[in-house]
Write a structure and sequence with these properties.
Layout (H helix, E strand, L loop, with lengths): L2 E3 L6 H13 L7 H4 L9 H13 L14 E8 L2 E9 L4 H5 L4 E5 L8 H15 L4 E7 L3 H9 L3 E6 L2 E7 L2
Antiparallel strand pairs: 1-2, 2-3, 3-4, 5-7, 6-7
The chain binds coenzyme A.
């Protein structure tokens, strides 16, 4: 049974294989978190350890940066030592996140798609968002992203409106 875990150096090999898959994916754009991996971390174990430490440190409100980056809890969806997906909970909204991004973003590696992982991963994340004080999470997906739309609606998402090409939803966390 997969579960949400903290990012860990233990899954380095699987994480790197997932990054390779995301980069080769022709169905969706390369996710932000992939472009955000320090390039050295892809080849060097010490740099990977530093990358994992950086991602974990982003949970601290002190990590909030002037460029609008708010505290964020990144979790990996993993089973049997394999990293299947990644999810991030932004602890609060900014005017920019209200328009693009919302509270929660997620990605499932291409080889693990269409097996219910995104639906289960979001379900597992909602109580965690609740424990961070988020009573209802703002989620959004591109209007063309049918899969993500289904993931959100299967988790109780209530459609709010369209902002540009994005569908916005409130998703209760409890
Ligand atoms: C969108 C994404 C997260 C879905 O992950 P997943 O693990 O394949 O999703 P699930 O298996 O839980 O499927 C959810 C639903 O979408 C459907 N679905 C999955 N992929 C689909 C596709 N390519 N086209 C149409 N429907 C699709 C599933 O059949 C399922 O429908 P159901 O609930 O009616 O049975 C994954 O494709 C992905 O990581 N894409 C790139 C990043 C991204 O778009 N992230 C979301 C940003 S808002």
């Amino acid at each position: 049974m997969p579960e949400l875990i903290d990012p860990t150096t233990r899954l380095r090999t699987s994480f790197l294989a997932a990054v390779t898959e995301f980069r080769a994916d022709r169905d969706y754009p390369v996710p932000w978190f992939v472009t955000n991996v320090d390039s050295q971390a892809l080849t060097d174990a010490t740099a990977f350890t530093a990358y994992v430490a950086r991602v974990l440190s982003e949970r601290d409100e002190a990590a909030v940066r002037a460029d609008g980056f708010v505290a964020m809890t990144t979790l990996w969806w993993a089973e049997d030592g394999q990293m299947l997906g990644r999810l991030a909970i932004r602890h609060r909204l900014t005017p920019a996140l209200e328009r693009v991004g919302g509270h929660i973003g997620y990605d499932v590696r291409p080889s693990a798609r269409r097996q219910g992982h995104a639906t289960a991963m979001l379900a597992a994340a909602l109580p965690i968002a609740g424990s961070l004080g988020i009573a209802q999470a703002l989620l959004m997906c591109d209007e063309a992203n049918t899969a993500s739309q289904r993931v959100i609606e299967a988790n109780g998402g209530r459609f709010i409106d369209m902002v540009g090409h994005k569908r916005r939803y409130w998703v209760p966390t409890s």
